[in-house]
Amino acid sequence: MNTKFPIVTTIVVKTTFEALHNWSTIPKEHASQFLKYPHRHQFVIEMIFKVSHQDRDLEFFEMKAKIDKTLHEMFPKKVRELLPDIGSMSCEMLAERLLFVFQENCILVKVFEDGENGAIALFDKSAKLCGDLEID
Fold first, then answer.
1. Residue 74 belongs to what H/E stretch?
2. Which of 7, 37, 66, 87 is least enclosed, having the fewest CB within 10 Å?
C-alpha cells in the first residue's frame, strides 16, 4: 500500500470494573452532596495501544486480562465488602493511573461512569512517552 502519510495502527481494548467511590472534597455549595458518600459505578474503561504490525502484536484477550488483573490488584476487595472501593479517585485520576501503568505502548485511556460521563487521559506529545506517535 502506497501512501504519502504515515499510518499509525492501534488496538482498542474495552473492559468494565464495578467499584465504589466518593468525592470527599466536594465543595459545600455543590448541589450533589450525595457524591461525598461511597456510591457504586460500573466503570467502563477503554484503552488504546500502539502496535508495530498488523498481525496481533498485542492480543485483545491478553491485554484485557492484564488490565482486569491490574485493576483488581490496585483495588482489592476488603473482607466482608462486595465491591472494591477506589476511595475519592475520579475518572480522571483512574485514567491517568492506568495510562502510567501501561505507558510502554498505551497512548490513550478513557474511563466512564456507567458508560455515560467520563474522562480521557493521553500523553502530551511533548512528553515523548508515546514513541514517534504524534498526538494533536
1. helix 60-74
2. 7
Beta sheet of 106-113, edge-to-edge order: 9-21, 39-51, 106-113, 117-122
Domain boundaries, the chain: 9-127
User: Could you identify the residue written with the cell 481494548?
Assistant: 13
| Rounded distance between C-alpha atoms, residue 25 and residue 23, angstroms | 6
Average pLDDT on 91-104 reads: 97
Hey, what CATH class is 9-127 in?
alpha beta
CA 60 to chain CA mean position, Å: 15
- On the CB side of 65, CA atoms within 13 Å amount to 5
Half-sphere exposure in the Cβ direction for 91 (13 Å, CA): 19
Q: Report helix, strand or coil for 59.
A: coil
CA 76 from chain centre, in angstroms, equals 17
What is the pLDDT, as a whole number, of residue 80?
Answer: 79
